[in-house]
Design a protein that fits this description.
Blueprint: H1 7-19, E1 21-23, E2 29-31, H2 45-50, H3 61-79, H4 82-85, H5 99-119, E3 123-126, H6 128-138, H7 148-165, E4 174-180, E5 183-188, H8 189-204
Parallel strand pairs: 3-4
Antiparallel strand pairs: 1-2, 4-5
């Protein structure tokens, strides 16, 4: 978030962006001629979220994006000096995350959990409903998907670790996570299969 940088940082960046090098107080020079500088910013995003995303529910996505870019560019002009802005090659405005994007991020974050469970000789799978719950709990309109990792740890990793310590899930378990009554429910599909087979055998006897 470049807008939070100290004013001295901008003075240094002006030299880097203009001359392609940086000189410190000892006269030492660092070459930046083959360097790409990428700076992030959240300017304008708060106003956009307050206004309901500038109407992203409408079908005219092109005009919505144009208005969003205009508002952000106005904030950029208010915040940064003309000298700094003129030295930037391009300003890229990213689209807000939609439902599909968030669910994709959920899958990415769950990859590590799945791999660690498999290292213990078990498997784990989540139903679409469970993933949707994680997406809803882990996404915030203002802060995006930053808290998703913490949500997965709280709702999936912590209870799963507790069940493993209690011996509920052991090597060979097929763990299935589903949504039930607004929370996540963990079951061992393999154990359920064994119970069903046992019940059927008992009925035959």
């Amino acid at each position: 978030e470049i807008e939070k940088a100290h004013p001295d940082v901008f003075n240094l960046l002006l030299q880097v962006l203009d001359e392609g090098r940086l000189t410190d107080s000892f006269g030492r020079k660092v070459n930046f001629k083959n360097t790409i500088l990428i700076m992030t910013s959240n300017l304008g995003t708060r106003d956009i979220s307050k206004s309901g995303g500038l109407g992203f529910q409408t079908s005219d996505k092109k005009s919505v994006r144009e208005r969003m870019e205009h508002r952000i560019n106005e904030e950029v002009k208010k915040t940064f000096s003309p000298e700094f802005i003129n030295r930037l090659d391009e300003t890229v405005v990213f689209n807000p995350l939609d439902r599909k994007d968030i669910l994709s991020i959920v899958d990415i974050e769950l990859t590590d959990v799945i791999e660690r469970v498999e290292e213990r000789g078990m498997t784990i799978s989540l139903t679409p409903g469970a993933k949707t719950l994680l997406a809803e709990k882990g996404f915030d309109q203002t802060y995006g998907a930053r808290q998703l990792k913490r949500t997965i740890q709280k709702l999936v990793e912590d209870p799963l670790a507790e069940d493993i310590l209690k011996g509920r899930f052991t090597e060979g378990s097929k763990i299935r996570v589903s949504k039930r009554a607004g929370s996540l429910h963990f079951v061992d599909e393999l154990a359920n299969e064994v119970e069903e087979v046992t019940e059927k055998e008992a009925e035959k006897a």
